[in-house]
Design brief:
By secondary structure, the protein is mainly β. The protein has seven helices and 30 strands.
């Protein structure tokens, strides 16, 4: 058994002692990235903190853009972007690790969705997110092709498995509770959760098929189905899917799949109708696909305020004002590279407004309706009602051009 040392999460003047395994490989899932982990989060409860060290029962709340993107300092420097990824281990970009002067230690290889990615480990003395502080944390240093020269860190595993955490997508904030004094007071039923190779999973049903699905706050999409499941069930033929191409970016490279809609997704006693679904045709965690059926992403999760009570092996989904709203596929017919300051077109749907305007994969969007694109404008512009005209300026081979796209439903 790996040696155990004490890791501290502190809340201002309060501290909670958590068990931390120094010699195990960090568990991690982000955009289809998997490392080894323990079998069930309910079996990894933190040691009970002394009563005088417990944080307030009301918890500690920090702002979180899109429900997952926080801001914090690392070793006294920053602030930097820190992403909250359910079931994830600690991760830091190589660019930021160099900037902070971190000393790389062990060499590891990460089994990603479509290959492997080399990484090293390093110890970070202190991370502070608002009043929340983590000390002496081991991080994996990675440099994926799509995130070179970017400064960011990812946290999740130690927080999820030892604290109760509320993600409020509607108000864009996260609240951390000490598990030892947390009692759920809402009205929704608990949904059992499990940890498989570092990722958080819950049982769900898609059109009558029941399996374990990742609950993935790092995935900006709605629903994806594992490649092996897609092949075995001949799901491309079953759903008559024809839109094929770029689906997501794993840390070892791009993944592909077919875009379609399933009839219903049932999670606990809640039903999501006709969610946009990617039928993966490569990658997506081959080492867990025998156990996992797919992943539920943020476009579905943001319909809820989610309470992750992993120390007790459950989560709670409280519907918010978005619950029941239709899941809208980009009405220009575009699939864009996620989370980029210079969004690149990765796929143009045949017969779509973007196709008619001769936009192509590789074009970079520089303006929307005359303004620089943002996460919000990219999402909102192409989700407007059919018949709306959107002015899109793209750069290709150093040349800029502007086209008018009249939106329509393409899926």
């Amino acid at each position: 058994m790996a040696e155990l040392v004490d890791t501290f999460l502190s809340y201002g003047e309060h501290a909670v002692i958590l068990p931390f395994q120094t010699h195990r490989v960090l568990p991690l899932i982000l955009a289809g990235l998997f490392l080894s982990s323990a079998a069930c989060c309910a079996q990894q409860q933190a040691a009970a903190a002394p009563a005088e060290a417990a944080p307030p029962a009301s918890g500690l709340t920090v702002p979180a853009k899109n429900g997952v993107e926080m801001s914090g300092t690392i070793n006294g420097q920053g602030p930097f972007k820190i992403l909250f990824d359910t079931g994830s281990g600690n991760l830091i970009s190589a660019h930021l690790a160099t900037r902070l002067g971190l000393k790389p230690e062990n060499q590891i290889f990460i089994n990603a969705g479509s290959g492997t990615l080399p990484a090293q480990t390093a110890i970070i003395d202190t991370i502070k997110i608002g009043s929340l502080a983590m000390s002496k944390q081991s991080f994996a240093i990675v440099e994926p092709a799509f995130a070179k020269n970017q400064d960011f860190a990812v946290v999740g595993d130690q927080l999820v498995q030892n604290l109760a955490i509320k993600v409020d997508f509607e108000h864009q904030q996260i609240t951390f509770y000490d598990e030892s004094n947390f009692v759920y007071s809402g009205k929704t039923d608990p949904i059992p959760v499990h940890v498989l190779k570092g990722a958080l999973y819950a049982e769900a049903t898609v059109d009558g098929f029941t399996g374990l699905f990742g609950i993935d706050t790092s995935d900006s999409g709605s629903l994806s189905l594992d490649a092996q499941l897609v092949a075995r069930g001949q799901l491309v033929q079953r759903y008559g899917a024809t839109i094929h191409g770029y689906a997501s970016e794993s840390w070892a490279g791009p993944e592909s799949g077919y875009y379609t809609r399933v009839g219903t997704l049932k999670l606990g006693n809640l039903t999501i109708n006709r969610p946009i679904t990617v039928l993966l045709t490569n990658g997506q965690g081959a080492d867990v696909s025998n156990e996992a059926a797919g992943s539920i992403g943020r476009s579905i999760l943001r319909q809820f305020t989610i309470l992750f009570d992993c120390p007790h092996g459950v989560l709670y989904l409280e519907p918010n004002s978005r619950f029941g709203q239709p899941d809208i596929f980009n009405r220009a017919g575009l699939v864009l590279e996620p989370a980029s300051d210079h969004p690149e077109i990765k796929l143009v749907v045949p017969g779509s407004p973007a196709d008619a305007a001769k936009l192509a994969a590789g074009d970079v969007i520089t303006e929307l309706n005359g303004s620089a694109p943002t996460d919000e404008s990219l999402e909102n512009a192409f989700a407007q009602a059919a018949g709306t005209t959107v002015q899109v300026t793209v750069m290709r081979d150093g040349k800029s051009r502007t086209v008018s796209l009249v939106l329509k439903d393409v899926l």
